[in-house]
Amino acid sequence: MAGFAITGYPSSYRAPFSAVEVLLGQGESSASPAAREAMVVGPYTSAAATAGTVANTVYPIKTEADAGLYAGDRGPAYRGLRMLLKAGCRSVSYLAHAESSGAGVVSATGVFEVTATPTGTGQIVFQFCDAVLSVSFNTSSTATTIGDDIEAKLNGQSHLPATWSNSTGTVTGTAAVAGASQNGIYRMRVISVTPGLGVTCAASGATMGTGTGTAGVDGATTENSLLTAALATITGSRYYYMMGTSAVQADVATLKAHVAAKSEPNPGLRSRCFAGEVGTLAATQTIAVAQNSERCHIVWQKNSDHDPAELAANVMAVTQKKEAVESHYNFDGYSGDDWFIRPAFANADWPDGDDLNDAVTDGIIAIASNQVKSYVTMHVTTRSKDSTGAIDDFRATETHRISVLDEMADKWVLNDMLTFSNFHLRDDEYLSDGVTVNTNQKIPPRTIVPSRYKSWLISTIMTPAANDGKIQRLNEWISSTYVRIDEENASRLQAASSGRTCDQRHQASWLLAETTPA
Question: pLDDT for 361-377, tens place per residue?
Fold first, then answer.
């Protein structure tokens, strides 16, 4: 029987190893896993740099204070870390990189504009990101004093991603991190102003970096180049759940490429990444289809009160928690006690059934909204197309397929090393027909043969997965499994199996027909 290739390990590779390659969407079927740690990768603020944060360094995060210290308590990375901790994420780390800098760098700004000749006592209710705040006014108030109150309220919320200053009623917020990644992701709105009292207040744009606000621009040193350099320092380390803070397509692609490369059999550091998007469905589809990877997740809520880092973090946190217990967890409609994503503010921004179907079909984790809550529509990867990216191919889009196979692979690697490390390898003995394995062959101590390894593989990895409802049609998995010694490398034991993971119940239908006689 012909051998097979494992990416990164040709037969000429001689150093000891155990590696597994996971293939998804392959058509018809022919010990505990390693810890699944979480990591946020993103820029730190100038305040964090002053406090001692060093670029390209991994910091363990145990508390919100740790997040504020290393990422800066107004930065996007802090907001992502804060949400992870709030949702109960375990084993959290932060990979720091600097913000964009150099010639041409610009920080995004946003503006609340107040005019005031008050004729009575009233109130302004306004919102920035997820913070709904209010200030009062009376007949002695001016645009300046009202603006000062707005400035104080905004600056008093240390988790908000900007610092604010007022000038005669023009209250300007400057993003805590410079560059283009901060454009269009922080929602601004005036909810109400007591009418008929001579006071107005308006957000000059829907988000920071729009309207009369200034759009952020990367400098000569771009955020993407800094992200790339930071990721290069952890190519030898596994963080199974990784998320970025940027919604920019190039940054999402960089993180996806890092995860995809690490997940190859060599180095075998299987992992997944998450990103958030708050733009239109069409814009998000463009980004998701461009990734087209079973190891990349994009979380979308149009015009969200949350920024991309918070969206990605909340979904990543609940994913880690649920998959740690049940790797094939069905997230349909998820909105548990650890879910902190608010419904989209405007009913017009709530995706309808067609929007949700389009999102899922293109590999987007869409966050739906109603009058009571928001919730996950379906947990999917961006692997929704064929290799050309042109044809819908849903076989590898559902998240549980990669999660289950990763768990099986992790268990195999660990148990293989624990059970057979320092063993000897020899071929099976066969009966006179040259095909049938001699089941009575004598196997020396600390020696493994292909037939015994196959039995071990079935009983240790496959059967438990089938019993837990993670894979189906166990007989097909067993019949497809073969184990042999590499003909070109006598020290390599090769095993191959194929089969189908469990399916998940997403839909049900019932056609009722009443049959009163004519």
Answer: 999 999 999 999 999 99
DSSP structure class, residue 343: P
Domain CATH number, residue 143: 2.60.40
Which strands form 109-116's sheet, in the order they lie side by side?
A: 162-167, 170-175, 109-116, 199-203
3 state DSSP class of 374: strand
pLDDT for position 34: 52
Residue 518 domain-assigned? Answer: yes
Together in a domain, 92 and 153 = no
Distance CA 173, CA 98 (A): 21
Instruction: Round to whole Å and give the CA distance between 20 and 42.
Output: 30
Instruction: Kindly state whether residue 215 falls inside one of the protein's structural domains.
Output: no
| Per-residue model confidence (pLDDT) at position 32 | 43
| Mean pLDDT computed over 41-68 | 96
pLDDT at 498: 93
Percentages helix, strand, coil for the chain, rounded to the nearest 5? 30, 20, 50
pLDDT of residue 23: 61
160 φψ region: left (φ > 0), alpha (ψ -120 to 50), beta (else): beta
- Residue-number span of the structural domain to which 499 is assigned: 1-97+243-518
